[in-house]
Write a structure and sequence with these properties.
467 residues; alpha/beta; Rossmann fold; GMP Synthetase, Chain A, domain 3; 4-stranded mixed β-sheet; 21% strand; binds guanosine-5'-diphosphate; binds magnesium ion
C-alpha cells in the first residue's frame, strides 16, 4: 500500500540528515504495514525541541513538562473512517517528536538516535491507530512488543542499535550520502544514473519529462553507499500534472547531502538553469556542476560555458562529461566523496533502487513508447500496471496505456497493431533483463480525456505529492 508521509523540521539542536529522515519515514510505513492498513494513509511528522514540545504538552495535554513525543489523532479510538470512493490518502493525524529528548534518551539507553527516534515514531503511529498505553495495560504490552518487532524488521534492534545492512562491511565503517540529481529535461540525468548504477533503473528518452516519479538509484562500493534521487526536470507548471512535477523536483533539493546539477553545453545559459542555481543557493548545499554530452559538443563552447557557470555560483567543481560514453563519471563520483557521512547504509549492499519491479516495468514501457513514436507521441500518455503476477520463473504483467484522444490511441497502436507490438517486444526484453525472469506482457491502450487535469486520475495513475 502506498502511504504518504510528510516530515518537517522545526528545531536546530539535532541535524536531521536525509538518512535519518528516511529511516523515520520507513519506520512509520512499517508500522502501517504491520497493522495491515489496506488503504492509503497520510501521516505528518514534525521534529521539534524540548521547549516547543513542552508548550504543546501544556496546551493540549495540560501537562507542564517536556515530553518525548506527542500524537494528534484525527479519529477517536482508532475508528478510522476511510472513504473508498476517494482516491486521496486518509490523513490519520500528526506526530511531534522532540529530537532533543530523543537524543538524551538514546544516550541513556545506549542505542542510536535512529533507533530512539524510530521507536518514538512507531509508538506514536500506534497511538494514531487507536492504541493507548495510558488507559489499557494490554495495549501497553502490545505497543512495546510490536514496536520491537517493527524496528527489528527494518534493521533497528535494541541491542545492537543500528544494524541496517548486514554486508561484508561492519556498520561502524559504513559511509553514506543522499544526492539529488537535478537539471532541465533531456540533459541526460537518467542516462547518468543508469551508468552509475550499472543497470536500468530510470527511463531514458529523447523526449523531455520522461521521468515522472522520483527514482532512486543506489551505488554501493567498498564502504560507501550513494543514494541518488532522480527528479523530473524543473519547469513551470501548466496543469495539475505540472504542479506535481515541480513539487517533487523542488522538494528533492533540501532533502539531500549534495546536489549534482546537470546541464548541456549550449550557446547561452538557459533561464531555467539560472532558476535552478537560485534554488541551489537557497538550499545551501554543496553542488557539483556536470556539463554533459561532451561527445557531441563544440570544445570552444564547452570552455565558454564553464566560465559562465563559474561566475553564477561557487560550485564545488565543474566537470565536463559524457553520461552516454561513461566519460568522467569516475570524477563525478570522486567529487562526491568528501560529502559522505559516517552513517550506516540505508539499503542492503546489492540493492540498486527502491522502486519496485512494478514501477520500473511501467517506466520501461513508457520509455519504449516514447522512443518508437518519436516526435509523434502526445505527451499526455501514462502507463499503469493493472496486474503484476510474479512467480518463480515467469512474470505476468498487464499494463494499460492511457492517452488523451482517440487519435492518439490510433497512433500508439499503429498500423495492424505494429507499433504497440514493437513497444511490447522491446519492453518485454528490457524487463526480462532487469528481473532475470521470463516476462509475459499484455498491453492495452485506453483513452481518458484530460486525465492530466484531474487530481483523482493523477492519484490513480500513481502520481503523489510526496513519496
Ligand atoms: P533526462 O531527461 O535528463 O533524464 O535525460 P535522459 O537521460 O533521458 O537523456 C535524454 C537524451 O539525451 C537521450 O536520448 C540520451 O541518450 C541522450 N544523452 C544522455 N547523455 C548523453 C551524452 O553524454 N551524450 C549524448 N550524445 N547524448 C546523451
Ligand atoms: Mg530522466
Amino acid at each position: 500500500m502506498k502511504h504518504t508521509i510528510y516530515s518537517n523540521n522545526d528545531q536546530n539542536n539535532i541535524e536531521i540528515t536525509p538518512a535519518l529522515r528516511a529511516i523515520i519515514k520507513k519506520a512509520i510505513i512499517a508500522t502501517l504495514d504491520y497493522q495491515e492498513i489496506d488503504f492509503p494513509v497520510e501521516v505528518s511528522v514534525t521534529f521539534t525541541d524540548n521547549e516547543k514540545i513542552h508548550k504543546l504538552n501544556k496546551e493540549y495535554r495540560g501537562k507542564d513538562a517536556p515530553t518525548d513525543v506527542l500524537s494528534f489523532p484525527m479519529f477517536e479510538n482508532g475508528e478510522i473512517e476511510y472513504d473508498d470512493e476517494s482516491d486521496e490518502p486518509c490523513a490519520i493525524g500528526d506526530i511531534v517528536i522532540s529530537m532533543e529528548k530523543a537524543m538524551t534518551q538514546a544516550v541513556e539507553y545506549g542505542h542510536s538516535l535512529e533507533r530512539e527516534a524510530c521507536f518514538l515514531a512507531v509508538h506514536s503511529v500506534l497511538h494514531l491507530l487507536g492504541f493507548d498505553h495510558e488507559i489499557s495495560e494490554e495495549d501497553d504490552v502490545y505497543m512495546k512488543e510490536s514496536a520491537e518487532e517493527i524496528l527489528s524488521g527494518i534493521g533497528l534492534r535494541r541491542d545492537t542499535g543500528i544494524d541496517l545492512a548486514q554486508g561484508k562491511v561492519p556498520s561502524k565503517e559504513q559511509k553514506t550520502m543522499f544526492v539529488s540529481l537535478i537539471g532541465r529535461p533531456n540533459v541526460g540525468k537518467s542516462t547518468l544514473l543508469n551508468a552509475i548504477v550499472g543497470e536500468k533503473v530510470a527511463a531514458v528518452s529523447k523526449k523531455p519529462q520522461t521521468t515522472r516519479n522520483r527514482i532512486t538509484g543506489i551505488h554501493t562500493s567498498g564502504s560507501e553507499q550513494y543514494v541518488f534521487v532522480d527528479t523530473p526536470g524543473l519547469h513551470k507548471p501548466k496543469n495539475k500534472l505540472g504542479e506535481f512535477m515541480v513539487n517533487a523536483a523542488e522538494s528533492a533539493i533540501p532533502d539531500t547531502d549534495a546536489v549534482v546539477f546537470m546541464v548541456e553545453v549550449s550557446d547561452s545559459i538557459h533561464p531555467q538553469d539560472k532558476e535552478i542555481i537560485t534554488k541551489i543557493k537557497k538550499a545551501n548545499l554543496p553542488a557539483i556542476l556536470v556539463l554533459n554530452k561532451t561527445d557531441i559538443c563544440n570544445k570552444g563552447k564547452l570552455l565558454e560555458n564553464m566560465a559562465k557557470f563559474s561566475e553564477l555560483h561557487d560550485f564545488v567543481s565543474i566537470i565536463p562529461a559524457s553520461a552516454l560514453n561513461g566519460e568522467n563519471i569516475d570524477i563525478i563520483m570522486n567529487e562526491l566523496k568528501p560529502f559522505l557521512r559516517n552513517e550506516p547504509w540505508f539499503y542492503p549492499e546489492d540493492m540498486i533502487t527502491d522502486q519496485s519491479a512494478r514501477t520500473i516495468s511501467a517506466e520501461i514501457i513508457r520509455e519504449k513508447l516514447l522512443r518508437i513514436l518519436d516526435e509523434e507521441i502526445p505527451h499526455g500518455t501514462a502507463v499503469t500496471i493493472e496486474d503484476y503476477e510474479d512467480t518463480d520463473k515467469l512474470i505476468k504483467i498487464r499494463a494499460e496505456i492511457y492517452c488523451e484522444k482517440d487519435a492518439h490511441k490510433k497512433i500508439i497502436i499503429g498500423k495492424n497493431g505494429e507499433t504497440l507490438k514493437k513497444a511490447a517486444t522491446f519492453a518485454r526484453e528490457d524487463i526480462e533483463t532487469a528481473t532475470g525472469k521470463k516476462v509475459f506482457l499484455d498491453l492495452w491502450v485506453k483513452v481518458k480525456e484530460n486525465w492530466r487535469d484531474s487530481e483523482l486520475n493523477m492519484a490513480r495513475l500513481g502520481f503523489k505529492k510526496d513519496e
